[in-house]
Amino acid sequence: MMGFWWRFFARERAPAAPAPRQPAADHQMPDVVEASPGTVSGDEIEECFHRHILNLSVSTADSAGLAREQSALQRLKELCDSGRFDVRSLPRMPSVLPQLMRAMKSDDLNGAQLANLIRRDPVLVGEVMRVTGSVTYRTAHPVGSLQHAVVLLGQIGLRHVVSSYVMKPILMASAGAGGQVIGQRLWDHAERCAHAAVFLSKGQCDPFEAYLAGLVGYSGLGAVARLLDRDVEGTLTACSPAFVADCAGIARQLTVQAGQHWDLPPAVLDALVEHAGPRQDALALPMSRVLHAAQRLATCQLLAEQGMLDTGIGYADDPVAQFPPQLLARCRQDLQKNFATP
Question: DSSP code of 194?
Answer without folding.
Answer: H
